[in-house]
Amino acid sequence: MKVLLVEDDEALASGLTLALDNAGVLVEVAGDGRSADFLVSTERYDAIILDLGLPDGNGTQWLSAWRDRGIELPVLILTARDRWSDKAAGFSAGADDYVTKPFETAEILFRLRALVRRAHGHAHPVIRVGDISLDTHSAQVTRAGMPVTLTAQEFRLLSHLVHAAPRVVSRSELTEHVYDGDAEPDSNVIDVQVSRLRRKLGSHSIETLRGQGYRMIAGAQAR
């Protein structure tokens, strides 16, 4: 999961970024609405965490503008403003969820995972593709009921493929969602990671479509 955090409080942004990073979430930070606007227009994210009190305008104004431009990413508002009028304004602008400060990082993580899951059409926290299951709450993966141990990068790659299934996911999309934008991977890193996943999950678990990308095989049992 790759998230854009729009927050001008550097200490809060740093602490939340570290906590989410430890949970396997890639986070990019924008300190104002203008920077966030540029990033959502040029980069791919799974969700946005948006503060309302930004130095260059209310967060709801930026959110409303993104919705008007057809940007449909899940948005979680994170703010100290707890009045009903502020919440109503946030949801009216297009927010999907609303959390007030102070907060528990675990709650933010659970809500993000739920937002991303639902954005891909999955209501249940456990997503199944063939005999592979991914629990979005516990971040556990099983194959035919048996636990599978994955590295952080392997889990992020598999999670993106599972959420997208049965859609084909391009190499560029995987690169943007799985790897830190400041550390562009070598051209064959994704191939290596997919190969390792196949060894752990079965050779028929992930299909390669030449010139298009990869997709999870929903109908077949991994062998």
Topology, please?
Layout: E1 2-6, H1 10-22, E2 26-30, H2 33-42, E3 47-50, E4 53-54, E5 57-58, H3 59-68, E6 75-79, H4 84-93, E7 97-100, H5 105-119, E8 126-129, E9 132-135, E10 140-143, E11 146-148, H6 152-164, H7 171-178, H8 189-201, E12 206-209, E13 213-216
Parallel strand pairs: 1-2, 1-3, 3-6, 6-7
Antiparallel strand pairs: 4-5, 8-9, 9-10, 10-11, 12-13
Task: Summarize it.
The chain is an alpha/beta fold. The protein has eight helices and 13 strands.
How is this structure best described in words?
The chain is α/β, with parallel strands linked by helices and 223 residues long. The protein folds into two domains: 2-119, 3-Layer(aba) Sandwich (Rossmann fold); 126-216, Arc Repressor Mutant, subunit A, CATH 1.10.10. It has helices at 10-22, 33-42, 59-68, 84-93, 105-119, 152-164, 171-178, 189-201; strands spanning 2-6, 26-30, 47-50, 53-54, 57-58, 75-79, 97-100, 126-129, 132-135, 140-143, 146-148, 206-209, 213-216. The strands form four sheets. Strands 2-1-3-6-7 form a five-stranded parallel sheet, sandwiched between helices. Strands 8-9-10-11 form a four-stranded antiparallel sheet, with helices on one face. Strands 4-5 form a two-stranded antiparallel sheet. The protein is elongated.
